């Protein structure tokens, strides 16, 4: 395999798309033909590039984007049904499970719970349930084996009429920090319309069983940018879109990282477009010195241009994420050494919705150890109906990696009928 | 929104990953902070980048990879069941439908047809059906409305014992050119082992009904590179992997393009790895002056580093593809102005398997007009079994685009009960 060294004047510097190529390395843009001294024969062989002097655009892109690296980040999700109160329930919808905490040998999770059929918008009844998460409460459940779950009761309910959370509280996440448990969750103040902006609220307790004390005000709000067009309740009609989070701040996820409180969240935008990657969905982060805030949105937002429900965990000194359904980087695992600047590590076939990761896993053992098993939800859609009028069921996922098998006691990992 | 013009010495040239940025345009690699004069306020607004001086790695990547462009290439696939001989059939497996030709007002398609259960490898019986496409024949069917299909009979069967196609013929594609119909398809010479390399064969006829005349020799073979390790029939054990197509040459797809015959195909590699994008699957092309060959593999192969069953059509002066299940660029639509150098245009949620496109659609009307409807296959997997022992059923897909609706007569497009 021969390849040429270019003269210094023609050297092209690009570190596009990879944290692992230092600025001093050089590689070709798709449109130029010359190969680079930065790649080894092993790199070419991995990618089956037989002649570096005659590379297709796809081959140049494969090198530039490190398709020959990071195989240890790849794996595939599997799904399992749960038992007890998480078995399919025709009358109760349970969705958006939080991370799973293991407290005194027992697994805990928090989730959105509703009853009744979703009617949707435009019924003429302002109290009609407009989404599967409308008129919701946050409940919690426990399990000894991660398969049989017992619903324990309500953790947080809506506020009094007139308060910022009087319509619905839902999509919780949990952080245990120095003996205090913090729930962060979405809140809606009535009326619940297409154009309604939500907020993020917090409640805390000294015990996972509660009682939970709510903060008086939201800890995060949608951006006050963008301008609606007209008065019709249509969130696609705008004079200007505003920021990535001008409409919604969803899926709040709280981590203690770098000695601060990182509140990751999904933004939805007024006048949302369909792009080359589908829906425009982006994530942001807001950072505080204290768990109760104030949370300051990062100047570097948005920190992703893809994803949907958040899936975020600390891997060694950085933050790893799984990006799901929407955007050009859908169904990828990404990593940011600093929690802000994410690069794509792996490309997955499918990703479960609304994953709740298990906090007690040995997350630093391997890039994907934090995904070994956890909870997620599925839509249960009756025949002839759409996702809106179905309910949700919490289920369990596992992540199969060729490169990592947990060395822990297996009774937590495989369903044992005698449990 | 302020952004700086950099001094000439700091200008960084990259045309990574986009055919639409000329070499004179410049944009930042992820690791540098300075913005570029190549982007407009509209570009930043599209991506909700509020401060170009403080962009996350994801935002820089979004600009560099044109996430703010190509929205007209996006859409979503829908699925429909077919009727007549393509309804579910417990005894017959039909898979890998070819492109659909419309001849004298009637739709024609060719496909792999088998009966009997797949036994898999290691049974000790050299004649046992090892894959759903083993002991296969190529049959064809017709339809007036694209929904009700009538199976017409066999087009091509296996050869005589000892010939290069004596075990199985399958996965056909069709090209009509100057009054002659050309079938290209995969062929296997017994025995059919894990390590067996297949070939690509051709048969031609002056009528879509046949009779079909086979060429005496394959038109394409797997690369004679790579080296097996040991004698165990295991295709993952290699001393060296060889080229991207050292094991298999699959899914041959023949187009008349730039006044030549472009034979696109999928390569599978000896000692196939699991990479950061899953299975390593790549496409190549071989080009001939005459439809019967000789076909010369392009020096620029591989031309993709992702995909599975081919989906290829001409859009204006270039070639468009849909990349499916495997690799870092799974589930994307890509375009090459020259049929060789593909760039990613859109990122799809799901992609049907083994699509057979409709050749008579007005493909040049819009980037995705060629996908408006077509055929594909699903696996029908009995409870408790794996994909290997299931059968296949041919079904119909449609592609929903926000940007394109066909102006043609609708009776072809929607199932009309009176047809």
UniProtKB/TrEMBL annotation, chains A, B:
<keyword id="KW-0732">Signal</keyword>
<feature type="signal peptide">
    <location>
        <begin position="1"/>
        <end position="19"/>
    </location>
</feature>
<protein>
    <recommendedName>
        <fullName>Glycosyl hydrolase family 32 N-terminal domain-containing protein</fullName>
    </recommendedName>
</protein>
<dbReference type="InterPro" id="IPR023296">
    <property type="entry name" value="Glyco_hydro_beta-prop_sf"/>
</dbReference>
């Amino acid at each position: 395999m021969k390849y040429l060294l270019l003269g210094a004047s023609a050297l092209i510097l690009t570190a596009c798309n990879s944290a692992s190529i230092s600025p001093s390395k050089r590689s070709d843009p798709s449109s130029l033909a010359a190969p680079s001294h930065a790649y080894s024969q092993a790199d070419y062989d991995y990618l089956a590039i037989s002649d570096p002097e005659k590379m297709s655009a796809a081959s140049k892109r494969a090198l530039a984007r490190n398709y020959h690296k990071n195989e240890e980040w790849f794996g595939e999700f599997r799904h399992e049904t749960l038992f007890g109160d998480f078995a399919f329930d025709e009358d109760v919808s349970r969705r958006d499970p939080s991370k799973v905490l293991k407290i005194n040998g027992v697994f805990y999770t928090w989730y959105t719970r509703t009853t009744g059929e979703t009617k949707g918008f435009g019924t003429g009844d302002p109290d009609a349930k407009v989404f599967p998460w409308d008129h919701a409460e946050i409940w919690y459940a426990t399990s000894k084996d991660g398969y049989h779950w017992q619903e324990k009761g309500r953790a947080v309910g809506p506020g009094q009429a007139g308060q910022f959370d009087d319509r619905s509280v839902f999509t919780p996440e949990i952080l245990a920090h120095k003996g205090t448990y913090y729930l962060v969750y979405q809140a809606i103040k009535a009326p619940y319309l297409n154009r309604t902006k939500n907020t993020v609220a917090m409640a805390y307790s000294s015990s996972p069983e509660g009682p939970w004390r709510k903060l008086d005000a939201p800890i995060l709000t949608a951006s006050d940018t963008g301008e609606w067009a007209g008065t019709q309740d249509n969130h696609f009609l705008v004079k200007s879109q505003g920021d990535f989070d001008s409409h919604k701040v969803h899926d709040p996820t709280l981590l203690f990282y770098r000695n601060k409180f990182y509140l990751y969240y999904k933004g939805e935008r007024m006048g949302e477009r369909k792009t080359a990657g589908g829906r425009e969905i982006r994530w942001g982060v807001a950072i505080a010195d204290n768990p109760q805030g104030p949370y300051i949105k990062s100047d570097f937002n948005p920190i992703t241009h893809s994803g949907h429900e958040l899936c975020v965990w600390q891997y060694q000194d950085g933050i790893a994420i799984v990006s799901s359904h929407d955007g050009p980087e859908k169904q990828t695992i990404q990593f940011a050494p600093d929690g802000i600047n994410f690069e794509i590590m792996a490309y997955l076939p499918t990703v479960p919705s609304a994953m709740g990761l298990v906090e007690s896993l040995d997350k630093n053992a391997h890039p994907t150890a934090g995904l070994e098993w956890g909870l997620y939800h599925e839509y249960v859609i009756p025949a002839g109906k759409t996702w809106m009028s179905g309910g949700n069921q919490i289920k369990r996922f596992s992540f199969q990696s060729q490169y990592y098998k947990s060395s822990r006691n297996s009774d937590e990992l495989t369903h044992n009928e005698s449990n």
